[in-house]
Amino acid sequence: MATPAFQWSDDREPHRARTQALLKSHPELRRYIGRNPATGGLIVAVVVAQLALAFAIRAQPWWLVILASWLLGAFLDHALFVMVHECAHDLVFKRRWENVVAALVANLPQFFPSAVSFRHYHLKHHAFQGVQELDADLPSEWEARLVHNRTVGKAAWMLLFPLFQIARTFHLREIKFFDAWVVTNWIVQIAFNAAVWYVLGPKAFVYLAASLFFSIGLHPLGARWIQEHYLTDGLQETYSYYGPLNAIAMNVGHHNEHHDLPSVPWQHLPDIRREAPEFYDTLQSHRSWTALMVRFVFDRRLSLFSRMTRAKFVSASTDRGVDRSPSASPT
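^ thats the sequence. predicted structure below, dont judge the formating
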C-alpha cells in the first residue's frame, strides 16, 4: 500500500491569476471593494443574542443545554466567526485597531481567545495557500497521519477540530505567536469567561463552550472547513458552497469569490458570481454542507491528505498581495 501523502503542485495558488483575469474582464467589480460598518452592529446584536440564550439556559437540564448549543448556539457562534473573519480583512471599519476591537467583541461568547491570532494566521493563508509551514488551514503531517481516512477518526477530528486548529499553530513559521493585541485578547476573554461562570453559572458557561465546538466541529456548519479547500472533486483547490445556509452564515460559502477578491465584504460576494458567471459556474461547488459532512466522514477516498500543497517560492511573497485591489485597500 502506498504511503499516504498530500497532493503537490508546482504552480502558484490559483487565485492571483484568476483575480487578474476577473478584473480585466469585469473592472466594474471594483465598486464592491470597501467596508461595511453595519457589520459592527450585527456583531453587537449576535453577541447579545448569544448571551440572552446563555441566560435562558442557565437553569435548564443538561441535555437541553447541549441541544440548545447544537440547534441555536452553533449558528450564532458561526456567524460571529464570519464577522471575526471580516474584521481580519479590515472590512468593517476604516482603522485597523477598530477592526481588532470589533473582533474582540465578536470573540466574547466564543469561549476561546482566538480573534487576534486568527487575523495573523488567516492573512498568511491567503498569501501562502498550501504552504505547510505558513498556512494554518492546512493539516499538519502528524495530524493527517493520525486521522487519515478512518471514519471514526474523521468524526472525532471534526468534533475536536478547535483543538487540532490550536495544535497546528506550533509548527508554523514567520508568525509572531504573542503581541500586545493577542495578550489583550486573552485577558479580556478569560475575564469574560469568569464573569459568565460567576454571574450566569456553569450551565451557561458550558452552553457557550459547546456552541463553539459545534459551530466549527461535528455539525453541518463544520463541513464549511471541508468545503473550502479539500480536494473532493479532482484537483480543484478551492470550492464555494451555494446552499441555503449562506443566508444565516453571511455568504461565507462563497469562498472562491472571497479568495479572488478578499477586499469585498460579505454582502457583495454573491454579486461577484452573479456578474461574472463565466468564472464561477464552470467550477465545482457544493450545495449541501450536511451531505458534504456525511460524505467526508464515510468516504474512505477522502482523508486529511486530500489537500494541495506547494513550496513557499511559488506563493505570494507578501501579505499585501491578498488585497487584490489596485485602486483601494482597506488598512
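The chain has 15 helices and four strands.
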